[in-house]
């Protein structure tokens, strides 16, 4: 482990330019791999490049967590960033030094409340999983601590409000990183409901809505976490024992809804980090969902039927790589309302991420709930392409045929890794009992539970899928796709 606080203080001074320990400017709910490889790294970059001088207090939101280990290591840990950029392998190492303390709300509740009184505190960051931002009507302000993350945050905010007599200057900038759309708006709504439930005074609610600011976010970085299977290799790279080392890809994107005032508070524009503070994050969210997630979902059944097992294998094979590349650049990107150059640059970064040799993305894992993922991530691109061009997108249409065929469960003496809801699996088990491909396609496209619409009404889609499935059954995926292209690529 790291030996003493002297090591930490020395490193903090070196990174911040100060002679004292970093003041607590950031309160972070969550101590997991993602926050440590993403948010803590981002603030460290601010400290080093802009002299931001921000220390982080990490709050453990659950009973069991890593705060004891984090405190044992004086808040220090190593971040390894491994990946591919413009075809070149990247391996970088960074010792993270900006965590001042860790607090377990279940064993040190008074220490948690004391954080509300920190003069320098400006920001609250969180990542408590998608289910973390929830309204729990059984929560009470008298419980130490309340059960939910919003409950814990409410208690802390109310304590700060009281301690500083409702001073507007002591309001906090709240930036949740949970992977739900409009995460800050949702959190604010829950906090106000708890204020009503707990009968907090109107002055507090006014302070919460006018002195505190809430900012929706989009976060994007793959964080595999602790390199358990390669731990000896990583231990050989450092001269100390680190039980909290974390691995991540080099790619980094943080989109935060905010104005010029927030840009002044968080001067990421003075660093090389890709942090975008924008008035509306939805175009960036759509870009990520359609390109990154959409390409993932579109390639999975196609690549599994071909015989690949990982995303990287998909990009290493000329046939499947060409398919994925054309899905993105020819059929998804043209449907998005952003500049082509920006979309293409983002897409190139996505392909680098897919090629990352340090991350093994199993296609079988990504295949989870493929139907619902296709509806959200791929279908909008397909439908918008049709609307814009009055013809079907060849690759996305063939991908949908592969999706339908995938749910038949068996392919060339292989059992396919189907993992979906009982209703979805049952539907395809019953539908594929028929040998009539036209029947299978009609039934699938008319399933309102899948698509929230009858896709038989999309001109030419039913006929194209029938032809694609016939080709798959008769000729396999390579020859089948070649024949499909000849018929529909014009």
Task: Give a brief rundown of this model.
It is built from 21 helices and 14 strands. The protein has 490 residues and is of the alpha/beta class. The radius of gyration is 25 Å and the shape is globular.
How is the secondary structure organized here?
Blueprint: H1 5-16, E1 24-29, H2 33-37, H3 39-50, E2 55-60, H4 67-72, E3 77-85, E4 88-96, E5 99-104, H5 109-114, E6 123-126, H6 149-163, E7 173-176, H7 183-197, H8 202-210, E8 213-214, E9 217-220, H9 231-235, E10 246-248, E11 253-257, H10 260-265, E12 275-278, H11 282-306, H12 311-316, H13 318-332, H14 340-354, H15 363-366, H16 370-389, H17 394-406, E13 410-411, E14 414-415, H18 422-431, H19 437-445, H20 448-451, H21 461-488
Helix pairs in contact: 6-7, 11-13, 11-16, 11-17, 16-17, 17-21, 19-21
Structure report:
The protein has helices spanning 5-16, 33-37, 39-50, 67-72, 109-114, 149-163, 183-197, 202-210, 231-235, 260-265, 282-306, 311-316, 318-332, 340-354, 363-366, 370-389, 394-406, 422-431, 437-445, 448-451, 461-488, and strands at 24-29, 55-60, 77-85, 88-96, 99-104, 123-126, 173-176, 213-214, 217-220, 246-248, 253-257, 275-278, 410-411, 414-415. The protein has 490 residues and is α/β, with parallel strands linked by helices. It is globular. The model is unreliable at 4-19 (pLDDT under 50).
Low-confidence stretches: 4-19
Computed structural class:
alpha/beta
* Number of E-state strands: 14
Cα separation of the termini: 63 Å
Number of H- or I-type helical stretches: 21
> Can you give the helix content as a percent range?
40-55%
- Overall, the morphology is globular
Largest pleated sheet: 6 strands, parallel
Portion of residues in beta strands equals 5-15%
Query: What is the average of the pLDDT values?
Result: 94
From the structure provided, what is the oligomeric state, counting identical versus distinct chains? single chain
Calculate Rg over CA atoms. 25 Å
Strand order of the largest sheet: 5-2-1-6-7-8
């Amino acid at each position: 482990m790291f030996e003493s606080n002297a090591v930490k203080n020395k490193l903090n001074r070196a990174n911040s330019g100060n002679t004292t320990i970093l003041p607590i400017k950031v309160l972070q709910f969550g101590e997991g791999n993602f926050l440590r490889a993403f948010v803590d790294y981002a603030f460290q970059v601010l400290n080093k490049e802009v002299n931001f001088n921000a220390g982080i207090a990490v709050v453990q939101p659950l009973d069991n967590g890593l705060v004891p280990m984090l405190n044992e290591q004086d808040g220090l840990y190593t971040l390894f960033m491994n990946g591919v950029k413009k075809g070149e392998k990247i391996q970088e190492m960074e010792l993270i030094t900006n965590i001042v303390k860790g607090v377990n709300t279940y064993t040190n509740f008074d220490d948690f409340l004391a954080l509300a009184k920190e003069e320098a505190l400006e920001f609250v960051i969180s990542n408590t999983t998608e289910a973390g931002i929830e309204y729990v009507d059984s929560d009470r302000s008298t419980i130490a601590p309340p059960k939910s993350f919003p409950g814990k945050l409410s208690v802390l905010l109310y304590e700060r409000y009281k301690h500083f007599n409702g001073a507007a200057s002591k309001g906090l900038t709240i930036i949740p990183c949970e992977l739900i759309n409009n995460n800050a708006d949702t959190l604010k709504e829950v906090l106000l409901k708890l204020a009503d439930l707990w009968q907090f005074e109107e002055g507090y609610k006014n302070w919460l809505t006018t002195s505190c600011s809430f900012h929706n976010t989009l976060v994007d970085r793959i964080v595999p976490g602790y390199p358990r299977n390669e731990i000896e290799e990583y231990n050989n790279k450092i001269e100390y024992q680190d039980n909290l080392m974390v691995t991540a890809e080099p790619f980094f994107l943080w989109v935060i809804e905010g104005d010029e005032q927030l840009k002044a508070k968080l001067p990421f524009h003075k660093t090389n980090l890709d942090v975008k503070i924008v008035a509306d994050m939805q175009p960036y969210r759509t870009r990520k969902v359609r390109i990154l997630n959409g390409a993932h979902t579109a390639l999975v059944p196609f690549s599994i039927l071909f015989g690949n097992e990982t995303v990287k294998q998909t990009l290493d094979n000329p046939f499947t790589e060409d398919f994925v590349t054309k899905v993105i650049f020819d059929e998804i990107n043209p449907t998005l309302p952003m500049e082509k150059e920006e979309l293409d640059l983002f897409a190139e970064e996505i392909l680098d991420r897919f090629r990352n040799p340090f991350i093994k993305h199993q296609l079988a894992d990504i295949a989870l709930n493929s139907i619902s993922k296709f509806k959200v991530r791929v279908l909008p691109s397909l439908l918008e392409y049709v609307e814009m061009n009055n013809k079907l997108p060849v690759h996305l249409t063939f991908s949908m045929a592969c999706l339908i065929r995938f749910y038949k469960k068996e392919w060339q003496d292989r059992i396919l890794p189907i993992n979906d809801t009982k209703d979805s699996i049952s539907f395809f088990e019953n539908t594929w009992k028929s040998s009539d491909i036209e029947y299978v396609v009609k039934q699938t496209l008319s399933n309102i539970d899948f698509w929230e619409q009858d896709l038989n009404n999309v001109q030419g889609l039913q006929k194209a899928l029938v032809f694609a499935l016939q080709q798959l059954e008769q000729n396999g995926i390579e020859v089948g796709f070649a024949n499909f292209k000849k018929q529909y690529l014009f």
